[in-house]
Write a structure and sequence with these properties.
heterodimer, A: mainly alpha, 0% strand, flat, B: alpha/beta, Rossmann fold, Alpha-Beta Plaits, 2 domains, six-stranded mixed beta sheet, four-stranded antiparallel beta sheet, 11 helices, 14 strands, 33% helix
Chain lengths: 281, 310
């Protein structure tokens, strides 16, 4: 554990003693702040216009109209920015030769990977932590947002960010070029994001493909009927689908397990990749 | 301290290290010598556990590099060819970080870091960014990170490369001061370095060990053959053949560019100078100069590399 913390701490130092952390956090806050402000202005304008009408007044909800869309936007910004956080994690070590130091020290590959992941996760935590001020701003005013669903939403965004980070770490371990690591991480994250777009047609395509391959037996024996379809599977793999319940303030273990599984699987594969590189040289 | 048996490392089809075996005793300073691409770095990377061997075994400080890598790594210090430095870190925090992942107890970290800084002469740069230091100081920071946990075995890959002559001397002094307490392996392609710092040399060529000898034995190889330089005033076309005919002479060459200068190689056990002189007088070649040339380490090295019997 001491090794993990030492590596995580060094990682954090590197982010915060270089301009990297400040550029990332600054850009992130500027974008998310603007989005939050835009929603807030729209909401207050609606309040002014329809506030006198008791029917509309019931429909006006600061949670639904300001905070919930904010989480969706945070997710998209993460999709674009986390590859930049994760790209250097292994690629830079390999390029500069410091990997040779880490892997000849009495630390295991798992400790190195976990340390790096925690270090980057800390930066993510800082990014999200600062945006907590947005709902607090509303709290300070007359409007009273419901804080519980808000915090659940934050948990969802954090978990999704960690999944992106895991994927990014995995890609970074495969190359010593940071740009390739960033582009690869972005591609992988986006792929998981957009998987459900083809969910419905994928089910149909698969069924007709199986049907023609089995000379119609597939349909006659009702093999494709019942149980999850390919479309269901793709839907379940989508990063954005699992965020939806969090956004609504619903805490469902299914989604927590999904994101944590992505993180765990990514870290595990990273360890395999790093170890295999030592065999291949 | 170090036992290597039948070590082989292949990168794809290419054998970087081809079945080498050697052992190093405690307190020895051993030099790995060989041309670039001979397999020195790969051997060191296997010994430090950075790459896994394709076959064969290596034990360092009593632990197998594959079966007990963590225990083994606790007992080594390693300076790779390119010093592994985080350029954006300051010297002292960097050394503290390395100390903590090298397993130095928390309470001792400050003392060990101070000692390493002092031994490597880093006092004046301890508060500066590593990326801003000169190559010489970076090399010393690299050395400091390798020694700060007082390892049993110190593995240094080309420790003096890129340094100026006075820095090279300092680093050599530093390495020499480790003798006895630490076992040191260093690689180099500079012969003088081996002569000055090591008490044993392993010459590696094309992934194999071409020679494994103490410095004295290696130097004595120079005496096994003799070279004699001749300068003749009136050398004829047949001179070379006639010299070769003298018993004990192995080879005769004309020196390029110098009129009348010959290099004669002779068996070490026989002194052929007298016969050469007699022949020169009887044939009227006009002997101007004759001197014995001893083989330098450089010559021995090149001969071993080229696979000749020196």
């Amino acid at each position: 554990m001491r090794n993990v913390l030492a590596i995580a701490w060094r990682e954090i130092r590197t982010y915060f003693t270089s301009p990297l952390a400040y550029v990332i956090i600054g850009t992130f806050l500027a974008l998310s702040g603007y989005i939050f402000w835009a929603h807030l202005v729209r909401f207050s304008e609606l309040c002014l216009r329809f506030g006198s009408n008791p029917y509309f007044l019931n429909q006006l909800n600061v949670n639904d109209m300001v905070i919930r869309p904010l989480f969706g936007s945070l997710g998209i910004i993460f999709l674009l920015m986390i590859p930049v956080v994760s790209m250097r994690l292994f690629a830079e070590e390999k390029k500069s030769g410091t990997a040779e130091l880490l892997f000849t020290c009495p630390v295991t590959t798992g400790q190195v990977i976990l340390g790096k992941f925690l270090g980057a996760a800390f930066l993510l935590l800082v990014m999200i932590g600062v945006t907590l001020s947005y709902p607090l701003v509303i709290l300070a005013s007359n409007a009273s947002p419901d804080m519980k669903p808000t915090l659940v939403g934050y948990l969802g965004v954090l978990l999704m960010g960690l999944s992106f980070l895991g994927l990014g770490l995995l890609i970074s371990s495969m190359t010593e070029n940071q740009i390739i690591a960033a582009v690869g991480a972005f591609g992988a994250s986006l792929a998981f994001w957009i998987l459900p777009w083809v969910a419905d047609s994928a089910t149909v395509t698969l069924a007709s493909l199986m049907n023609s391959m089995t000379f119609g037996l597939w349909e006659k024996l009702h093999l494709g009927v019942g149980g999850p379809t390919l479309g269901d599977l793709l839907n379940k793999l989508s990063f954005i689908d699992h965020l939806k319940d969090f956004q609504k303030g619903l805490l469902d273990t299914e989604h927590i397990v999904f994101y944590l599984s992505v993180v765990f699987l990514s870290l595990f594969l990273t360890q395999r990749v790093v170890d295999s590189q030592r065999w291949r040289g | 301290m170090i036992e290597v048996a039948g070590l082989t490392k292949a990168y794809g089809d290419r054998l970087a290290v081809d079945g080498i075996s050697f052992s190093v005793d405690k307190g020895e300073i051993v030099g790995f010598l060989g041309p670039n691409g001979a397999g020195k770095t790969t051997t060191m990377r296997v010994l430090t556990g950075y790459v896994s061997p394709t076959s064969g075994t290596a034990r360092v400080a009593g632990f197998d590099v594959q079966e007990a890598p963590i225990e083994m790594k606790r007992r080594i210090g390693y300076l790779p060819e390119h010093p592994p430095l985080y350029r954006e870190m300051i010297v002292r925090p960097f050394l503290r970080f390395v100390a903590s992942i090298r397993g130095v107890p928390r309470k001792e970290i400050d003392a060990r870091v101070d000692r390493a800084i002092e031994r490597c002469g880093l006092q004046q740069v301890a508060g500066r960014l590593i990326g801003n230091l000169s190559k010489g100081f970076q090399q010393r920071v690299g050395l400091a990170q390798a020694i700060l946990h007082e390892p049993d075995v110190l593995i240094l890959d080309e420790p003096t490369v890129g340094l100026d002559p006075s820095q090279i001397r300092e680093i050599r002094q530093l390495i020499k001061s480790f003798a006895g307490a630490h076992t040191v392996i260093l690689s180099t392609h500079i012969l003088a370095e081996v002569t000055m710092t090591c008490n044993r040399v392993l010459i590696i060529n094309e992934g194999r060990i071409a020679a494994d000898e103490t410095m004295e034995v290696l130097a004595a190889r120079g005496g096994r053959t003799r070279r004699i330089a001749l300068r003749l005033a009136r050398a004829a076309d047949g001179t070379e053949g006639q010299l070769r005919a003298i018993p004990g002479v192995l080879d005769v060459r004309r020196e390029d560019g110098q009129e009348g200068v010959f290099l004669v190689e002779a068996e070490g056990v026989r002194d052929v100078r007298e016969q050469i002189a007699e022949r020169a007088v009887s044939q009227g070649w006009g002997l101007l100069e004759m001197r014995a040339v001893t083989l330098s380490l450089e010559d021995i090295f090149i001969r071993i590399i080229q696979g000749e019997a020196a």
